[in-house]
Amino acid sequence: MKYFLVVGEASGDLHASNLMRSLQKLDKEADFRYFGGDLMQSVGGTLLKHYREMAYMGFLPVLLHLPSIFKNLNDCKKAIEDYQPDALILVDYPGFNLKIAKHFAFHPAPFTYYYISPKIWAWKEYRIKAIRKYVDKMLCILPFEVEFYKKHQYAVDYVGNPTVDAIAGREHASETFGDFIRINSLENKPLIALLAGSRQQEIKDNLPTMLEAAAPFDDYQLVIAGAPGMDPAYYTKFTGNHKVHIVFGQTYRLLQQAQAALVTSGTATLETALLRVPQTVCYRVPFGHLSSFVFSHFFACKYISLVNLIAGKGIVKELFGKYFSVRQIRDELDLLLHDESCRKKMEEGYQEVIAQLGDPGASDKAARCIYSSLYLL
Prior knowledge:
- By secondary structure, the protein is an alpha/beta fold.
- Helix content is about 50%, strand content about 15%.
- The protein has 18 helices and 13 strands.
- The protein has helices at about 10-25, 40-45, 60-65, 65-85, 95-105, 125-135, 145-150, 160-170, 175-185, 200-215, 230-240, 250-255, 265-275, 290-300, 305-310, 325-340, 340-355, 360-375, and strands spanning about 1-5, 30-35, 45-50, 85-90, 110-115, 135-140, 155-160, 190-195, 220-225, 245-250, 260-265, 280-285, 315-320.
- Strand 4 (about 85-90), helix 5 and strand 5 (about 110-115) form a beta-alpha-beta unit.
């Protein structure tokens, strides 16, 4: 069968590549075309456009790149029409992917699957109307999403969480601290990991404050997890005189050796929890006090991190909006490093989240849902 996948960022590239491998196990004739990334390309098929050409974040960058965004949409629609796949698989990235789904709801269309639900439970709940109209099958990866969609009379499948798969199947799981620092020419000092985001704007907004907050901890070395596809030179714009190292393609290896981590919101918070690393979530947004007011009064959820959302309570500290500052981040990092009761309580919370997510196998379950439903059409 023919599968067309649409991905708009690094985490989607990871999860889509694992889904492709699972589909290959079920369908020996599987053929893939996609808007995606390097990990998907390593599995096979044809990469038509890289997600780096599509990832625009924030109102102003989107406005400035509207011609490129419209061109990407048109290119994607035409590629799907030319390919005529049996299945169209949309991975997160709702601003783009829901437009693709809508287009093919009114054209001769493949069966449309959505893998990794848009976060409409946080805001833009009205998008449920579009999903019910344009998406044939939704495959969710967060346990609480099932109840959310059930409330809206839309049946979904919970397939488990692909981040659990990625962590369980990671390479170098048994690597020692000594091996890690030797391979990366690091010092023989405990590590603080800095995960400042996967996009340029996130790095620009978050990294300088993270570095300043962590700088006084002289007994530790600071190591940045370089984002996939990011030019190393981009980081040097913000590192200044700080003594800091950068490693690329080793995020899991870095985390499993770290004593604590400063992490922007997103999948990285869940990855850090699954590797049981004490963390503080740091995320700068413009107009901090106003943003905090808007979040508390107009968003349907209480938290921004996946860890807390899954747990339904505050497991990790979230410093964003008016709470994002050097002083507050530094104070929380000090607790993570030196307060055993804080570390133990967070570990217990992580264990609750891990139990809720269930065992590995999300990619295989999602592939079975897709493959079996195609045969029933």
